[in-house]
Amino acid sequence: MLKFILKQIFVAIIQILIVATIVFSLLRFMPGDPAVLALGTERGSDPEAVQQMREQLGLNEPFLTQFADWIAGVFQLDFGQSLFNNVQVWDYLASSIPKTLELAIAAIIIGSVVGVTLGILASINRGGMIDKLATSIAAIGLSFPVYITGTAFVLILSIQFNLLPSSGYVDFFDDPIGHLKSLIMPSFAISLPLIASITRMTRSSMLEVLDRDFVRTLRAKGLSEKIILIRHVLRNAVISVVTVIGLEMANLIGGTVLIEYMFNWSGLSTLLVDSINSRDYPIIQGAVIIIASFYILINRTVEIIYGLMDPRTR
Amino acid sequence: MLRNKNIFLILFIGALLITASACSNESTSQDSTDGGDITFGLAEEPDTLEAYMQNGTHGRTVKLALARGLYNYNEAGELEAELAEDYEVNEDATSYTFHLREAFFHNGDPVTAEDVKYTFERILAEDSTATFKSELSMIDEIVVEDDSTVTFHLNEPSAPFLHYTAIPESVIVSESWTEENSDQLDTDFMGAGPFKLVEWQQGSHIIVEKFEDYYKENKPQLDGITFEFYTEENTRVNALRSGEVDIIETVPWKDVESLEQLDTVKLDSKNGPFMKLQFNTSVEPFDDPDVRKAIAYGIDRDAILNTAFSGRGTPIYGMAILDGYLGYDDRFTDYYEYDPDKAKELLAEAGYPDGFSATLLSTSQYGMHEQTAIAVQAELEKIGIDITLELPDWATRISKNTEGDYEMLVAGTSGDITDGDWMANFYQGGEVRLNNSAYFDDEEINQLLAEGRETTDEDERQEIYEQLIERAMEESPFVYLNWREQSYGMQRNIKGFTNLEGFLSFQSGITLENTYIEE
Amino acid sequence: MFKKLLQNKQFIFSTILLLPVFIVALIGQFITPYDPLEFNHNQVLIKSSSEHLLGTDEFGRDILSRLIVGIQPTILVAIGATAISLVGGTIFGVIAGYARGIAEKTVMRFMDIVLCFPPILLALLVVGFWGSGVNNLMLIIGLLYIPYFARITHSATLQVKSLEYVESELSLGATHFRVILKSILPNITSPIIVQASLTFAATILLESGLSFLGLGVTPPAPSWGQMIGDASGYIHNNPFYVIWPSLCLGVTMLAINLLGDSLRDVLDPKLKR
To answer: Which residues of chain B are within 8 Å of residue C38 when distances are taken between CB atoms?
Structure first.
């Protein structure tokens, strides 16, 4: 088992390195010169200053030297500093990762609670009204992009009824209630597609288990339906539901671009998009590595858990 | 007669009393409103706090809260002595002497002549990346006469020199502090301005607090300012609507009307920056002044104003110059007109009776740039010019701009100073720059720009710049489109913050020292 | 198979919903009431009038006309991208599943790498690199979805290959190419079709998301996502401007998802709900 995990970690590191290399090279060939941008774009500077800046930023060095320097840093978990000021990339990451995690976790919690509940209700109600309702909600949740549902929330909850702030991040320690209020709309908007896929997964795996022979046997034995459902069916269905939740979580880290943008929630995606816009190479590279690592980490964990829970897949 | 005099006397005394009471009312009300903190919504997070870099309106606003120069532009748009008390200049404008007043940096050190010398030598140093390095390169030598007197010897006469000391990038920094903190000048700042830096939390906010020893009595009035960053414009506006912020910069034009209807919010709007088209004058057909003029005649500026700017601004059918600026004359404001027939005629004369195809570079990253480009495309189609839009992100657009890799380009900008020499950055020939039309190089204009700098007599200078603008209109390296309204939005109880006129709108941060909250 | 589909109510319903969308995408430019690019700067952001049924946008352009034309690039990108990812993914997946060994490891690990970039972020990077526009979007989005097809076809190929008759064919002297073409591919069409419908929906979402951010179809040509992005700034001025394209996009997505579900129900009975 230990060997298995070590091997997984090794493969993950190789993958991250390849991701890093691809991003690093892609960036150096992207149009747009950070030296020019660093000097400010409202006024422009003379070419001499640009040359000076390029030297200061180390952009004059040969490609391979730049890459070697950077990779050496990455192995010591040092992502370097922003090209525009001497702030460490880690400082930027440290202020944005918690915000994205918070948003993702809130959305996952909402999505799981609502999704699992709807899925169970639908499956025991197969073909009934509740089932139809749940299936429709799922279909709509999957169909409307987050920026449309987000806009709809803003239109109704902020503009029409003025219940919630239309956007913006409020620091928890400044104003806890304001913070929670600002969290509601973006996390609900993100959770809709999650609700949809979790509802579907719960429903179908519940149905699958319900169809199995052992349930019939249990029923024949005269066990109450409640106990059958909770003790036996749910337990069997939970594996695939957990898998879906895990995979969705992995997708959310870095997949919240549109919502962060709409609600001025300055998380990891916003950091990445902003630094792409300003060609702040070290931040882009750092953020991509973090996102990829999260993704790989969560995926591997899900695989391992899945393997532990379901001996058939080993 | 006597009676009349008495009546006048009574009236006069009465008037005095009323004024006095009004004054005292005002002052008491100000006393009671002293202090408090406000939140200022910036449109972007500044990249750096490095004093000598021009990093946008947002950067300048923060800079002007923290620092002062020898001179600065005041609320009325005039040069006002700040850290200097006054200055003397010799007859041929080659030597400027400044007398400093008693003022202190945030760490308690006095502002000395050595600091002034250090500030400008740092800008001119070989490894400096100062934005206005070449504009200040006429400085030959800086001599410290005594602790509070410093003389700048220039290597050529320069009438606009004082203006270049007044821009926010020429604010005075402390020699000892700057040397000690040379590795963190991007993120830390210490100056002699009304507020001092408390913290800059990257990605979140910048906090400044009142500097008790600021050289002006009873200023600043606020205890502190928190600068928040709202990159997304709708978010910024909504934050103002809901009262989350007290002041926002760059109110989007589409929201001006709806904000004006609110009881809680007021706007301060001025015609500041302008939009223009730049041309690569080395490629056909834009090497022909007639083609450029045809474009000047062929665009209905209202089409751009009404669509890209929701009607907020003023069309420019000539030179982008405001009344009161050197070289201004009525005839330049409507040098052209909207006349598609004339445009077609000019195109035919230039050898393009059926029009031509060209690309127009702009950016998809900023709505006003993209929308201006779309409107220009639609307008030029009517005179037979078939435009393909090129809308990369801002960074790519800037690269193409500075490398001269474009045919036509949408630009939005403003002059740096209110002196006539602002035109140098736009019209001076030479290497391709952000703000000139690529490869445009006109002997006569270069000559006039040099004369304008060397001449000290105001009337003569007026004459020179009029000639220059005349020539610029004939050659038409730029087609100016419109002034765009630059608006600050604030809560009604915020007083004293003023949007400066004209080119100076980006320097409105200077009035943060006058800003206060009315109960 | 077709008979089964025609008996499926959901399939019929979603097809009826989608048919007009595709027809409009095909002939849109001939049936618009106005030129979708024509400006009228004196009539901007009108809500609804007898002249402009759904109102006008910030340039005074007719929203209905733009909606009609705006479906085309979206559908075009979705079809193109789905085709690219289908062909590319199937080739990789089948080779990996059929050849096994080092080829399989290399291909599938590489697919994993592409997968660990969130699609929209990778698209952002590549659009910055290559520029936007219909052709680029098609290519970029198509490449991004190759791994999804590769995974599906890979596991399907593994299943089919282990069947006895494939082995026997090989022992009878059939070439690998022939086996893949005649025995493997026909047996994995169901999962491919199901995956294609999922990808089609996903590419529409991605294209409209990029357009929403202003990185999609080059203006002034409209696309729904771009219209929503532009309109969201004018929520206070004219809320209907954002509502119309949102509804169009949402309903189209709904129809495509329903179609996908019905395909899966019929073609992949194992997953039957």
So the answer is: 378
